Amino acid sequence: MTTTTLAVLVPLLPFLGAVAGLLLGRTAPGFVRPLAVLPTLASLVLAAVVAARQGGDRAVDAATELTPTGSVPIELALHIDGFAALTAVLVTVVAGCVQIYSTGYLRDDPRYPSYAALVSLFTSAMLLVVYSGDLMVLLVGWEVMGICSYFLVGHYWETPEARAASLKAFLVTKLGDVPFLIGLFALATEAGSFRITRILGAVANGGIEHPTPIALLLLAGVAGKSAQFPLHTWLPDAMAGPTPVSALIHAATMVAAGVYFIARLLPLFEASQAAMVVLAVMAAATMAGSALAALAQDDIKRVLAYSTIGQLGYMTGALAVADRGAAVFHLLSHGAFKALLFLAAGAIIHAAGTNSLAAMSRMGHLRDRVPDAYWTMTVALLALAAIPPFSGFFSKEAVLGVAEHVVTGHTEHTPAAAGWIVLLAGLLTALLTAAYATRLWLLAFRGHGTEAPDHGRQPLTMTAVLWVLAVPSLALGGFAFRALPDWFDGHDLTPTLTTSVLGTGVALVGGIVTYATWRHTTAHAVRVPLGAVAAHPEGDAGQVEAEAIASHEPAYGDIAYAPDPSDPGRLLLGPLHRHAAAGFHLDAVYTALFVRPVQAGARLVRFLDREVVETYVRGAGTLPRWLGAAVRRAQTGNLQTYVSVLLAGTVVLAVAAVLVATGA
Amino acid sequence: MHLAYPAVLSVLLFCTGLYGVLARRNAILVLMSVELMLNAVNLNLVAFDVWLSRAAEETLHSGQALTLFTIAIAAAEIGIGLAIVLAVYRNRGTSDIDKLRDTAEGHEPDGPDTDVSDSDASATQAAAEKAEATA
Amino acid sequence: MTPAATAGSLVGTMNLAAESPGFLSPTGVEIAFLLVGLVTFGAAVVTVTTRQLVHAALWLVVALGGLAVEYLLLTAEFIAWVQVLIYVGSVVVLLLFGLMLTRAPIGRSPDADSGNRWVALAVAVAAAAALVWVVVDAFRTTWIDLDGAPAGSTDVTGASLFQHWVLPFEALSVLLLAALVGAIVLSRKAKAAAAGGGTATPPAAPPPTAAPPAGGRTSGPGASGTTDAGRDTEGTR
């Protein structure tokens, strides 16, 4: 088979798996698990073959036009370069792990068939985005991912948090998608095609006359999808979905789609200095703010969600300094270790029966209950904190190195301001990242107090994939940074000495300071007992998690916050802690700025409809009603009256007929 | 004989019956008036038949045959009509036509059927007043 | 206006008296017709205006009898006797039964006429005026020749009835059967419904099984007269 055929099969197999799963979910439950896992694994093999054949050489391009659409043609097009091939491998690896993990995680869930089918559909859509060479086809995958995310976040729709979170995720991402769509149309109009290759050709020839507005419009969609400031607020709430969904969609792949999209169209963004600066500011604000917020969260998954936002900020930062190699490198390594973090967190939540770090810090020996999760999560947290030689170190140093290059003026068409912004924010975030990673690790695994409940070992399906993902988290960076430039643009991804020392230094400082603070505060833990544990600890992990999410707010007063004086984050952040826990009140700001005006507008419209329009309608109804009342008075029910009127009419008609007939 | 004599008499009888149908309150009197109207028609038929059988050589005697049919049908009609009136009288306790106002606007279908005139009439009047008030 | 028109037409007829017999020189039959007609019309008016219900029925007898005389004057003998037999003999009797069964008040009842009276009068007068105008205008010169063989003797009527009108005649017998059954069913239903009240018996109700298949041959409330007429006709032939 040719590479093109294989590449077409890669997104097609999970799609067929999803359709079959939806059709057979009720009638043949025995096929659901194979139908979920096998197509994804087959796609993994095919994607690997495609990547091996492509091998970083010239991009594979294939296109067919199904039907002429009038103006700008829409083609089913493939564009597989090194980025696409490697990203597809990442997507299929994570999706395969998540599907396997889900069979254990949701083993008793009655809605598992639809869940698995939606995950397959999502995988298919993401692969379509990755491989597509036509922006309209890419948009199809982009929107299918959005709707899958909506359904999967709302998987536990019995809980109000999940319902609200799914709606919020959908609306906020759509808010970005509207300008995104307009930007796509504007871009296609100026370039005369939706094909990425032709658009990039037009950019190279200077055929795009208004790169800045187009780039900014596209950025809005990217900000919504990739959870960048100021449209990032849906991602922490989306943690109300099942943990495997968080791992696949909200950490490793879908949120990376925006970054990947910019990486594909980077020359277009480079054509606009303003867009690059905006991208840099966006990345910096996202990184620093989310890292601060992550330090204050109590829900272990919300810590990871904010950490995801921050790491995505690194990727957009790398794009802001015009190095998509570094961005996609970080995307790959982050996808591996963040999926691992989430899956391990799912195991921990199951074992502990709670998602609250404050409650976990009051459990002894939790790490002995989940040894696989303990070790793999340690690896992943070290990768997250960018400690050498874990993979996060190399990818993050690649980003910081590029920023440093720009600052020192080694590149020609990137504004130095962007470099400074990215570099400084990146270093600050490295410090904070190490701090919250250390806090997470200490609170989760170094708790003192009552023994953690023993529910037996986790299922093998859940623990095995942790080790599978631990391998790239541990070793991907160290082995790949030499090979990757061949696949990408050829920029050197080797860590530079300055940034390596700086980055590792601040990371170590962050970790050590947090450890010291923790030693200081952990003594308070005994005095303030806290904790609420799920009601059905013997149930499957999905049920435990749903109950943990549902009980967090009643138990602690807020979904993101717990009044825990032994939290090192509280001491580190000081007065900032409360605001950071609430995500710097961005939701409240949005409520005041958008939700309230919209609701007031709706009330106004309702008032106008009920009171003003209705009045006219009632007024229009008055005349017929009066006429009807007048006519109604003739309905006396007396037959003789009726017959009298009938005969009188007959006489009149007869006389008239006679007069007409005689010509009188 | 002038044809105008029986024709005019027929017209006058017909209109007398018409008045009776419209003005009489008792249903049996209304039936009598209907008989008058039928007889007026019969007279007309007979007169024209006699005229035509002489003047126009019409040999079918359709007028007289139709008159016989009308008489037969009138007999059937009066039998059925009286049966209906009796049934109404048994159910409602009255055979007055202007008390049978079930089709009136605002009539209550669940109202007391067996109870006689006064309450029914007052109910009808109250309903009419209500209709006026709402209008 | 209409009486004026009628008067005008009468004047016109006088001028045409040379061709056709005029209204001013009536024959004996015409005078008799006019007088009986006046009586009939008067009886009819009293029927629809009297306040005594039973008297109304009796005046109806006068009116119907007067019509029978008119039929005789028009040489329709058979119709005249059928008229007497059926209307005077059975219909009025039925009506009187009906009046009694519905407990019509004997003597003057003040509310014999409904409130619709004046409307009814207006409609009736208007209809009369229009019809008289039209009829007189159309037929003021038409002359019926009453000499010669009677137009409606039993012989002639029977011949036409059983030569040309057999099928409608038989159809009519089915109608009468239906009317018979209908009257019985209506009365029986009413009796069953009013069994607790116990008001009255139905007027004439032989059980439906007693009726022979040949429709009009039994004595029913409305069928008897017509059947007799049919028998008479057969007998004459």
UniProtKB/TrEMBL annotation, chain B:
The keyword Transmembrane helix applies. It is a multi-pass membrane protein. The keyword Protease does not apply. Residues 119-128 have a biased composition (Low complexity). It catalyses: a quinone + NADH + 5 H(+)(in) = a quinol + NAD(+) + 4 H(+)(out). Gene3D superfamilies: 1.10.287.3510. Residues 98-110 have a biased composition (Basic and acidic residues). The chain crosses the membrane at residues 66-89. Its main location: membrane. Keywords: Cell membrane, Membrane, NAD, Oxidoreductase, Quinone, Translocase, Transmembrane, Transmembrane helix, Transport. It is an enzyme of class 7 (translocase). GO terms for molecular function: NADH dehydrogenase (quinone) (non-electrogenic) activity. NDH-1 is composed of 14 different subunits. Subunits NuoA, H, J, K, L, M, N constitute the membrane sector of the complex. Belongs to the complex I subunit 4L family. NDH-1 shuttles electrons from NADH, via FMN and iron-sulfur (Fe-S) centers, to quinones in the respiratory chain. The immediate electron acceptor for the enzyme in this species is believed to be a menaquinone. Couples the redox reaction to proton translocation (for every two electrons transferred, four hydrogen ions are translocated across the cytoplasmic membrane), and thus conserves the redox energy in a proton gradient. This is NADH-quinone oxidoreductase subunit K. It comes from Streptomyces fimbriatus.
